[in-house]
Amino acid sequence: MSTTLEPDAPTRAVDRGQYLLATLLVALGGYTVYDATTLNVGFGDPVGPRAFPYVVGSVLLVLGILLAVATARGDRPQAEEGEDVDLTHPADWATLAKLVVVLVFTAATLGVLGWAINGAILFAGSAWALGSRTLVRDILIGIVLSVGSWYAFYVGLGIPLSPGILDGIL
Q: Which of 25, 35, 73, 143 has most Cβ atoms within 10 angstroms of its Cβ?
């Protein structure tokens, strides 16, 4: 009687990134649902301010759980056929750091500089962080987009965005 040794079953690598994302989705969804319970509800509105956070939080919870289950089953992200991104290549942390700096600067100076200036800085800074070499063009496009969106919100929707140092000019 001959015995043959069967090769060991292939070991699957644990995709910690997917589990981390699933954990973040569940935590964010849980916090959103919890936070919705603390909102004050008026008696005149049948839907109230809680409806949207409940929906968003519930969707985040379900997506996080589904992602964790799919990851546990061995599902791995697949690149699309036309996609030219190499999923085995490490992240570009320098670009990510530049984008974070631009976003933090925008958030920190929004009240002082206002949306029209900050939007232009946000656009031009993001374009620079992602590799654009045409700074003047990026600034001009950012100015057009930010001033245009400021007027769209203020005039079109009636929602005032911060004018900052341009108060009285816009």
A: 25
Rounded to whole angstroms, how far apart are CA atoms 170 and 168? 6
- Using an 8 Å Cβ cutoff, are 154 and 160 in contact? yes
45-91 pLDDT, tens per residue? 666 677 889 999 999 999 999 999 999 888 877 766 766 667 678 88
Question: Which residue stretches of the chain are H helix?
Answer: 16-37, 51-72, 93-129, 135-151
Residues sharing a CB contact under 8 Å with residue 65, sequence separation 6 or more, in sequence order: 22, 26
Cα separation, 132 vs 93, whole angstroms: 17
Question: Is residue 126 a part of any domain in this protein?
Answer: yes
> 1 in a domain, yes or no?
no
Query: Is residue 9 one of the residues assigned to a domain?
Result: no
Number of structural domains found in the chain:
2
For 127, half-sphere exposure in the C-beta direction (CA atoms, 13 angstrom radius) is: 17
- Candidates 134, 95, 97, 140; CA nearest to 121 is 140
- Per-residue b/e over 92-118, b at no fewer than 16 CB within 10 Å? eeeeeebeeebeeebeeebeebbbbbb
Task: Find how far residue 153's CA is from the centre of its chain.
Answer: 21
In a domain, 122, yes or no: yes
Q: Is 150 within 8 Å of 116 (Cβ atoms)?
A: yes
